[in-house]
Design brief:
The chain is mainly α. Helix content is 30%, strand content 3%.
Length: 159
């Protein structure tokens, strides 16, 4: 555990001292501007990416909506706690976009689910802007965000 924390501290320091240029990153995904019909939602991703889905399901991102009070769910806060926009998407009485799902970071994937060879608009490793849309000083729990140290923790998969 101690070596893991040392690694995180070193990566954080390196990110501050040696920033990686935006050009070397994958394009950022902007979930706030994509229509709900373009999303497949996390259960669709699970069909082919079971190990990643399972790892994600144990993260705070998966439970992001439940972390908001009913009152906060009526405010602008909601946009960072659901996938695909700033409001809940209901289907058969269930909120299908609850939490920060795969497509919040990797891009809307309805076309990819329909035809897995379609990769247009998807980012294998999303850039920092995908994170800082929500992880910023507008968040009441913001304590700083270091992309290079945090991205590997988003949904760790045991190999």
């Amino acid at each position: 555990m101690r070596s893991f924390l040392s690694c995180i501290a070193a990566c954080s320091a390196a990110a501050l001292v040696w920033p990686v240029s935006a050009a070397s990153r994958a394009p950022s995904v902007s979930p706030q501007t994509t229509a709900a019909a373009e999303y497949a939602w996390a259960p669709s991703c699970r069909k082919c990416h079971e190990d990643i889905y399972q790892a994600w399901s144990e993260t705070k991102h998966a439970r992001a909506l439940t972390r908001l009070s009913d009152l906060d769910q009526q405010r602008d806060c909601l946009g960072c706690h659901v996938t695909g926009g700033k409001r809940k998407v209901e289907k058969d009485g269930k909120t299908v976009n609850a939490g920060v799902q795969c497509e919040s970071c990797h891009g809307a994937a309805a076309a990819h689910v329909a035809d897995p060879s379609v990769k247009t608009g998807l980012a294998r490793k999303p850039g920092p802007d995908s994170c800082t849309v929500c992880h910023n000083d507008r968040s009441p729990s913001f304590r700083g965000f270091f992309y290079d140290a945090m991205w590997p923790l988003s949904h760790r998969v045991k190999k």
